[in-house]
Specification:
single chain; about 70 residues; mainly alpha; 4 helices
């Protein structure tokens, strides 16, 4: 398994926080104990979506949270 499952994200995320994470996953994870622990289990970092327009990052976050 290369990454944690995407199901159930709403248990740990809201849209605003997920949008910030998608813009800078490594930087955001550094300030979050749960994400630092996951980084130890899944060493491949999440790619950044900083190049995606903010509205599209928000749409992606809503889609991910809609499970």
């Amino acid at each position: 398994v290369m990454a944690p499952p995407l199901r159930g994200l709403a248990a740990h995320w809201d849209e605003e926080r997920l949008v910030r994470y998608l813009a800078d996953p490594i930087g955001y994870a550094g300030g979050d104990e749960r994400l630092r622990e996951q980084a130890e289990r899944y060493p491949q970092p999440m790619p950044s979506y900083a190049g995606l327009e903010p509205e599209k990052r928000a749409a992606l976050a809503r889609w991910l949270l809609a499970d």
